[in-house]
Write a structure and sequence with these properties.
The chain contains three helices and five strands. It is α+β, with helices and mostly antiparallel strands. It has a five-stranded antiparallel β-sheet, covered by helices on one side.
Length: about 130
């Protein structure tokens, strides 16, 4: 076991961009919980809820629901997600238009991180 100071730290999302996405990850056993969380994000906080994907989409290694929000909604939403996500894992990132950076250097986790499929951002013609 690594000493405490050498353990990998999971960085909390930081409010430094104009726009953000949070992807609520779920599977068949947690789908209902995730749908309630996303529905409540809209009904309570007026956060835009995107498609609910019961399949792998883009770089995401789990089924997911995307929440879209702005820097003015950031602090309230992230705190609310931390308090209400229970055992769901959430991938949050800046939405700057640079997909690779958004899903790597502009990203953070609420819960346990997963390995993303970043190959979807590599241009095969390069």
């Amino acid at each position: 076991m690594l000493p405490c100071h050498q353990k990998k730290m999971i960085s909390r999302p930081v409010n430094i961009f104009l726009n953000y996405h949070a992807h609520v990850y779920f599977d068949k056993s947690t789908q209902h919980q995730a749908l309630i969380l996303c529905d409540n994000a809209w009904s309570i906080l007026k956060i835009l809820v995107g498609h609910i994907h019961n399949k792998l989409v883009g770089p995401h290694p789990h089924w997911s629901c995307q929440l879209s929000f702005t820097l003015t909604q950031f602090d309230e939403l992230i705190t609310w997600l931390e308090l209400n996500r229970r055992d769901l894992n959430i991938f949050a990132h800046g939405a700057t238009g640079d997909n690779l950076a958004d899903h790597t250097t502009h990203a953070a986790w609420l819960g346990e991180p997963s390995i993303l499929n970043l190959n979807v951002f590599i241009d095969s013609s390069a």
